[in-house]
Amino acid sequence: MSTAAINLPKSLALRYALTGWAFFITENTVLSHNRTYLISEIFNNDETAYHYFYGTLSTVATGLTLHGYMKWGEVGGGIGPNLSSSKFQIRCPFDFTTSDHDLVSGVGRVSRHSQLWSFASFSLGAAAATASLPQALCLSGPLAVAFIGGAHQDYRFRRGWGGVLTEEMDERTSNVPFLAMVMGKQGGVGEVFGKMVEEGKGLNAGVAILTAGALALRRGRM
User: Fold this and answer.
1) How many distinct structural domains can be found in the chain?
2) Fewer CB within 10 Å: N-end or C-end of the chain?
3) Whole-angstrom distance, CA of residue 136 vs CA of residue 24
4) How far is C-alpha 35 from the chain's CA centre?
5) HEC-encoded secondary structure of 114-165
6) pLDDT tens by residue, 121-171
7) Is 13 strand, coil or helix?
């Protein structure tokens, strides 16, 4: 087989991985940044229609990335045929709203955007376990989504666009996991980490660790 024949699929996979995530981040940022205008001027104050449109574009962007990953993934044949026929629609991740409870407790101590960063952490673990550059880039995409998406939501909420981020909450918490904790924004580092353990859900953490361990062992046997 020629070198060109080997490099072409990898080139296409890299292109899909980068283009898909770039499109996903761009459309989320643009649509969430212009949320108020779009709802009032384009969707006639129908917030549900806005979210459906937003979610549909996000699904298309994710589908582009998954298509390239499944078709040209080089380690283990990609995700596999069991996911290729699934259909899904996701809520726009840059447009989550925050409840009114005190965020400086539990997982809120770690990050203001725990949903985004937990997915990013899971994906990074999978990326670290593959020797394929296209797959690693594809699986690293959620990290960029978490960092950029979280920062953009903070930008909007500081200005009262679609939510609220008070000065106190902005000062005491962080987008990047553990940053506010290690910088002493919530008190002494040892004390804060102790509170995080006390406030955490031990059962949930145990299930997550066991699941991650089982997946790692399964990958090692494949």
Assistant:
1) 1
2) N
3) 17
4) 20
5) HHHHHHHHHHHHHHHCCCCHHHHHHHHHHHHHHHHHHHHHHHHHHCCCCCCC
6) 988 988 888 877 777 888 888 999 999 999 999 999 998 887 899 999 999
7) helix
For residues 179 and 192, what is the distance between their CA atoms, to the nearest angstrom? 12
Please state, for a pLDDT cut of 70, what percent of the chain lies above it: 76
* Domain range for 132: 3-221
Q: How many CB atoms lie within 10 A of CB 190?
A: 8
The whole-model pTM stands at 0.70
pLDDT tens figures, 42-84: 998 898 999 999 989 888 888 877 776 676 655 444 443 333 3
Tokens representing 163?
Answer: 């939510």
Q: How far apart are CA 58 and CA 92, in angstroms?
A: 7
CA distance 18 to 81: 22
